[in-house]
Design a protein that fits this description.
Radius of gyration: 19 Å
Structural class: mainly alpha
Distance between the termini: 14 Å
Largest sheet: none
Number of domains: 1
Helix content: 55-70%
Shape: globular
Number of helices: 9
Oligomer: single chain
Order of helices and strands: HHHHHHHHH
Strand content: under 5%
Length: 266
């Protein structure tokens, strides 16, 4: 019990740091316009180190007391490697819009093994794939946080205990992937939007109220991001419809065989 509480506090702290990292520019008295999130060039390395450190601590805590800890680490490493390779293929053969096949493995891992392992899967997949593809920049820790939240929320979805046979589960996972295809882009925009330049009705500056901020962001999102994010959303849904059942059968068979302990909470 104490181990789970300590592990939960690590994940909660990680989530709180992620939320603060996205929102703190909105609390500043002034911001300077910079291209595509370069306003985070100073804090991004620090956030990356803190996030990776907390993720590793969380993994170590999760493994304490588990006789099959080595198998868990090996499985997570294999899944991260597979997902990272999929992102490399995406770079070689670009897919429509913002679609990338890395989100399906993150969602399915979280669904099968719970919120905590889903969070770690998202973080380490984005980190490893960025190192492989050269996608390292001030945006990376923010992508890692958001992908971690994708995997974590998939773990919560897995607590519904849907029937393993039938059409409900693949369609629910497809809908889940579609929604996160849009949410991922909407959240990632906050990484650079406070520093963006453009029409007044699409940009933010200190002093405007919450309602005006939301209205301007809505206009910005519809004008710049919705079409791109729809490619990710539709791609996620189609990939999960096609592959979720065979992949989940394999993951759940592994979980049952090695008596993996699924955590329900953060």
């Amino acid at each position: 019990m104490a181990r789970r509480m300590l592990g939960g506090s690590i994940y909660a702290l990680s989530a709180a740091i992620g939320i603060l990292a996205f929102l703190y520019p909105f609390l500043l008295p002034s911001v300077s316009a910079t291209p595509m999130g370069m306003g985070h060039s100073q804090d991004a390395p620090i956030i990356t180190v803190v996030l990776v450190g907390l993720a590793l601590v969380g993994l170590v805590i999760e493994l304490q007391g588990q006789a099959l800890g080595a198998k868990t680490v090996a499985m997570l490493g294999v899944l991260v490697a597979i997902a990272s390779t999929l992102r490399f293929l995406d770079v070689v053969m670009p897919l429509p819009g913002g679609f990338s096949p890395i989100f399906a493995p993150i969602i399915l891992t979280g669904y099968a093994f719970g919120a905590r392992l889903g969070f770690l899967m998202g973080i380490f997949t984005l980190l490893a794939s960025a190192l492989i593809t050269g996608g390292v920049g001030p945006w990376l820790p923010y992508q890692m946080f958001t992908a971690g939240w994708v995997g974590m929320s998939a773990g919560w979805l897995g607590q519904l205990r849907l029937p393993e046979r039938g059409r409900l589960r693949p369609f629910l996972l497809a809908a889940f992937g579609f929604v996160w295809g849009l949410l991922f882009g909407a959240i990632m925009n906050l990484f650079f939007w406070p520093f963006a330049v453009g029409p007044a009705q699409q940009t933010w500056h200190p002093g405007i109220g919450l309602a005006e901020t939301l209205a301007r962001y809505g206009v910005f999102y519809l004008a710049t991001s919705l079409g791109w994010d729809l490619g990710r959303a539709v791609g996620n849904a189609l990939l999960l419809l096609a592959l979720s059942e065979p992949v989940l059968r394999a993951l759940l068979r592994f979980r049952r065989r090695f008596h993996f302990e699924v955590g329900a909470g953060v």
